[in-house]
Design a protein that fits this description.
By secondary structure, the protein is an alpha/beta fold. The chain is built from 13 helices and twelve strands. Strand 3 and strand 4 form a beta hairpin. The chain is globular. The protein starts with 23 loop residues before the first helix and ends in a 15-residue tail after the last helix.
């Protein structure tokens, strides 16, 4: 690692600023970027990626209620075709697929054709390890553990901009996610409000305050880096003050949007703030956990339903809040793999293969389920137990990268994979 980078492995970060995994070179980009001014920076396309960690049950999230084998394989956790006094029925999208009844807020997006589904999508690698599968998906290289950077970071590298905003890539997480690791700068912050407030404490003595943090985090052998920080400290806090002008603590969602108070809800709330503040955000990352439903998954109600309600209500609030700004924003959801087609002995599901993903935005050709669904009969199941994969996640990610972000060199973003646009779904 370049010695000018802060030592990530030691856990030393600029926590007092809410910035994680950054470098002096990163701070120098504040001086080059002209985003931190009162002038409008113009429209910018933004991709918001959302990772459902733990492997979401795509078959109970986007239910193939038209497949009788679905009900045979899941006698106690299936979503019924029609509701009853004890269970709500599937929210029908077409004559075959429907949403889990906890996802009522998604039906509005579907009807407005702002939401599309890709079913039977995932990684061609057959691992059932959460760690490996998440690594492969975020690296964009299934089966290859040696990839150093993430697919989102490679997009940033291949579409470099000398005057890009230092807030070009932001993750609302404790640490930089695997998909944003790499040579191109990215920020991780767990709380945007703390970023502005804590940084404000140093604003009257910019260099002294910043050097104080520096002295606590860097060894004496690296003192030459101090000169770099002296030169860039002022620009750093100009950026902080720019965020303070956005006044995160006083931010009010628009158009009646109400975000859930969950961790995921507040992450998306903060991404909306950054988009509205016009800081030049191009790639945003958020995550939602708890999807590893091995037992007591529930049917219309229960563990999975509670997760899906928070997930869908949060995204619906985000879309409502942004309003016409969604013309330039696309949300892409993903999960490392799906769940077994057959429920297990503890009324849950085990690690599977293909799952379902959502694409949301005003430029999305929504109101449609994309991808080939091969069915759940025993002869069609992958390894006799899972929904078979018919769409490689790289084809979906590549289509979004090319059509929404304007990525040109897809081979560098997804190395050792032949990108064929005939495999694109045409969903944008």
């Amino acid at each position: 690692m370049d010695r000018r980078f802060f030592i990530k492995s030691s856990g030393v970060t600029l926590a007092s600023l809410g910035i994680i995994g950054t470098s002096p070179k990163f701070f120098q980009s504040f001086a080059a970027a002209n985003v931190f001014s009162d002038k409008s920076t113009g429209k910018k396309k933004t991709l918001v990626t959302i990772f459902q960690r733990g492997a979401v049950d795509g078959l109970n999230m986007v239910v193939p209620y038209g497949d009788s084998d679905y009900y045979n394989l899941r006698p106690t956790i299936n979503i019924p075709k029609t509701g009853s006094a004890n269970q709500e029925g599937v929210i029908k999208l077409d004559s075959f697929f429907g949403l889990h009844p906890a996802m009522t807020s998604f039906k509005t997006l579907w009807d407005k054709k702002q939401l599309a589904v890709v079913h039977a999508v995932g990684s061609p690698d057959n691992t059932r390890s959460h760690f490996d599968a998440q690594d492969y998906m975020e690296a964009g290289t299934p089966g290859n553990k040696g990839t150093k950077d993430g697919w989102l970071n490679r997009y940033l590298q291949t579409n470099a901009d000398a005057k890009a905003s230092p807030f070009r890539a932001v993750s609302i997480t404790q640490q930089i996610p695997r998909s944003l690791l790499g040579r191109s700068p990215a920020i991780a912050m767990s709380n945007l409000n703390d970023f502005a407030i804590r940084a404000g404490a140093y604003s009257k003595n910019v260099q002294g305050g910043f050097e104080a943090i520096y002295d606590q985090t860097m060894s004496g052998s690296n003192k030459s880096n101090n000169d770099v920080l002296k030169e860039t400290g002022e620009e750093t806090f100009e950026a902080v003050n720019f965020l303070k002008k956005a006044n995160p603590s006083q931010y009010k969602p628009e158009h009646g949007a109400v975000y859930p108070q969950s961790r995921f809800g507040q992450s998306m709330f903060q991404i909306a703030q950054l988009i509205k503040a016009g800081v030049g955000l191009e790639i945003a990352f958020a995550e939602s956990g708890g999807w590893d439903t091995h037992s007591n998954e529930g049917s219309s109600r229960g563990q999975l339903g509670n997760l899906l309600r928070d997930f869908s209500n949060t995204i619906a609030a985000f879309v409502t809040d942004l309003g016409t700004r969604m013309d330039d924003v696309v949300l892409l959801t993903m999960s490392e793999f799906g769940r077994t087609a057959r429920e297990n002995g503890t009324r849950g599901t085990d690690h599977g293969h293909a799952t379902a993903m959502f694409i949301i935005g005003s430029e999305v050709k929504g109101g449609k389920v994309y991808g080939e669904f091969s069915g759940l009969s025993s002869s069609k199941l992958y390894e006799g137990r899972d929904l078979a994969l018919t769409t490689d996640f790289r084809d979906l990610f590549a289509e979004v990268s090319a059509k929404h972000l304007g990525a040109k060199d897809l081979k560098k973003i997804f190395p050792n994979y032949e990108i064929n646009q005939s495999k694109f779904k045409g969903l944008l």
